[in-house]
Amino acid sequence: MLDINLFRTDADIIRENIKKKFQDHKLPMVDEIIALDIEYRGLKTRADELRGQRNSLSKEIGKLMGQKKIDEANAIKEQVQAFAKELEEIEQNEEPVFEKLQQLLMQIPNLIADDVPLGRDDTENVERSRHGEMVEKPFEVPYHVDIMESFDGIDLDAARKVSGQGFYYLQKDVARLHSAVTAYARDFMIDRGYDYVIPPYMIRSHVVTGVMSFEEMENMMYKVEGEDLYLIGTSEHSMIGKFIDTINPESKMPQRLTSYSPCFRKEVGAHGIEERGVYRIHQFEKQEMVIVCKPEESAALFEEMYKNSVDYFRSLDIPVRVLECCSGDLADLKHKSVDVEAWSPRQKKFFEVGSCSNLTDAQARRLKIRIDTKDGRVFAHTLNNTVVAPPRMLIAFLENNLQEDGSVLIPEALRPYMGFKEKMVPVSK
Fold first, then answer.
1. What are the helix and strand counts (H, E) for the chain?
2. 359-384: string of b/e by CB count within 10 Å (b at 16+)?
3. Which residues in the chain land under pLDDT 50?
4. Which of these, 50, 154, 258, 271, could form a disulfide with 87 (CB 3.0-4.6 Å)?
5. Residue 257 CB contacts under 8 Å (≥ 6 apart), including other chains
6. Does residue 328 contact residue 209 with C-beta atoms inside 8 Å?
7. What pTM, to 2 d.p., does this model score?
8. Residue 227, Cβ neighbours under 10 Å: how many?
9. What pLDDT digit, counting tens, does each position of 347-387 carry?
């Protein structure tokens, strides 16, 4: 949510930003917001005037009654009653105007960074860097489900019977590998100075609308029937919610947190759920990183965050690239974002395994997350990034560490989490 003062002082910046996001249909909202803001401020000003006059006249009535000037007191009472009636009408109008204003404000996209490339969608994202050698295997790399099945490591048929499409059973060495990469990610981030947190997996609606756009909410979130609770799509949601309506001391900034959670997503939209595979599914697990910081810190911390992901994947011998998201590919709350993509030897291309975003104060304004600084009270900046999200990450891991005999090498960093095995050996060929 943008600062309402920006609409009052330089609305053209907001209009230009909307155009950069290719959301011209939202341009009329700017004028509507300005008009509603004027109306709301007018109502508040008149209400404050009436309250002041009512209080002053009420004191005058008391004096007149004490002086036995009953007729004069009754005349002023009539005036007070008229003020009260007008005030009641204003208060009835004030709340709907404010609610409509807030709803429109929450649909206006955050200001994007000056260096964000302009583009309509993810096809116009820009490669920022590559890390590691993209090796093409001297043998045909099987589909990731076939690799998992060679270890008797996945059962999709049973999952369909139990839960439907978009779910899975992981088992044996593949299930152990799944747990290993998340446990290693936890310790990797702790070693980098992040505090480990296990958050709630369900959050209330006012937190949902505080951390994401309405469109994302509709396409992602599962609602618990009969309760004001939603299953989280990522632990970022409850982790940012942890700071709701707080005033934080400057000395505690920045807050670096890493969190584990299961994640639940409808996956509504163009991509849909895979018929066979675990790339896009309804349920997965993730190790996340979240930062709450002072405004002047967020740009540097953004760089720190995505580099953590790059280093994590490289420690597991997985080549990655960093892709700068263009303006049209940024969700409305995002100021700047990069995707971390892993190399797929099978497809001979990169695919997304994580996303790092700086949301500046967009979430903090919605959730009232503030910081007391020596220069005054300011809204915090919030950032989030994926450390690792299996089972998608397992696709990259299995493909890149697969050997011609069907075994999968376990990088040294991961061996303590895999019983010190040096490789996984197929149970069937």
1. 13, 18
2. bbbbbbbbbebbbeeeeeebbbbbbb
3. 270
4. 50
5. 194, 195, 196, 197, 239, 289, 290, 291, 292
6. no
7. 0.89
8. 10
9. 999 999 999 999 999 999 999 999 999 999 999 999 999 99
